[in-house]
Write a structure and sequence with these properties.
Elements (H helix, E strand, L loop, with lengths): L3 E5 L23 H11 L4 E6 L4 H12 L4 E6 L21 H6 L9 E5 L2 E2 L2 H13 L5 E8 L10 E8 L5 E12 L5 E4 L5 E4 L4 E9 L2 H17 L9 H10 L4 E7 L4 E2 L5 H14 L9 H4 L1
Parallel strand pairs: 1-2, 1-4, 2-3, 6-12
Antiparallel strand pairs: 4-11, 5-13, 6-11, 7-8, 7-11, 8-9, 9-10
Helix pairs in contact: 1-4
């Protein structure tokens, strides 16, 4: 059975200042997301499941239907702030969804095959989807999942600092923990610096592996995540900014001995649009890949032939 691509696209993109999931970056105004879908199809994925807000469905259908209809099966799952389906009958005062872990759970009734999860606004490369497809076909188990590990120097923004989850990897190549590093940037000497908890600077090696939220799962992940999410909401329902995040849930599963995660190292760039200033840089990167023949100038024409 072909794997499914699950796309996290319900975020509000507050730092970017707009809906970057549907903003155009390619030569024909293609979104970053279209390049991910294009690469996933080439890597053998058979379905795409968008995780979105219900009120955005018509926008997504208008933006993507013409391009990908007939290329791959498409489904929509909806991430909403209210949680009656999880047993919370009271109204919870909240304007935004509950984070990436909650978004993943929104797909639990639609995704019955092995799948990967990505951000809608990051470019990952064809190699990423090929490596994850191979893992999902040959290694994934109900308690053994995967995470792509990108070299940190290939993930930074020149427009401002970013947050990265640095992978601590065992000798077996499995995730031991994710260490969140805040305000990561290249300093004047081009070293990769971050701000430690006490406010002092720390230095990261250029080849440190980091998570860019590219995970590989079997459907068993849903039954592992749901009780964690319910407990999280019970403890945080009065906090309108609390978020149930995939990396933190993965850490809990590791600590409880309920799952392992292979870290798949990848030597490829991963770039996106954290800030508006990133847009021309991303457009230049994609234009360069088109000029090199990595992607056709008319992205979907190649698959349609």
């Amino acid at each position: 059975m072909k794997p499914t691509l699950v796309i996290l696209a319900a975020g509000m993109a507050s730092r970017y200042g707009g809906n970057k999931q549907i903003d155009g970056f390619g030569p024909n105004n293609e979104t970053i997301l279209e390049y991910s879908i294009f690469d996933a199809i080439r890597a053998g994925f058979g379905k795409v499941c968008f995780i979105i807000r219900k009120e955005h469905q018509s926008v997504f259908e208008e933006k993507f239907a013409k391009s990908i209809n007939g290329q791959v099966e498409v489904e929509y799952a909806f991430q909403e702030p209210q949680l009656a389906e999880y047993g919370f009958s009271e109204h919870i005062e909240r304007s935004k969804p509950w984070g990436t872990g909650h978004a993943l759970l929104a797909a639990r009734n639609l995704v019955k095959e092995n799948f990967c999860v990505i951000n809608a606004d990051d470019f990952y490369s064809l190699t990423a989807f090929q490596q994850m497809a191979a893992f999902l076909a040959n290694e994934a188990k109900n308690d053994h999942f995967a995470l792509l590990g990108y070299k940190i120097d290939k993930t930074l923004s020149d427009s401002g600092p970013v947050t990265r989850g640095v992978c601590a990897v065992s000798e077996k190549g499995e995730l031991e923990r994710l260490d969140e590093r805040a305000k990561v940037y290249r300093n004047a000497e081009k070293a990769i610096e971050y701000v430690q908890a006490d406010g002092s600077p720390g230095i990261l090696s250029a080849d440190s592996l980091v998570s860019m939220n590219f995970w590989g799962f079997t459907p068993a992940i849903f039954s592992l995540l749901e009780p964690l999410f319910v407990t999280f909401v019970e403890q945080n329902k009065m906090d309108p900014k609390a978020e149930f995040l995939i990396p933190e849930a993965a850490q809990t599963l590791l600590q409880e001995g309920k799952a392992t995660f292979k870290v798949i190292p990848i030597d490829a760039p991963c770039f996106g649009v954290t800030y508006q200033e990133d847009k021309p840089l991303v457009k230049n990167e994609l234009s360069s890949l088109v000029e090199k023949g990595v992607y056709p100038r008319a992205l979907w024409k190649e698959l349609a032939v």
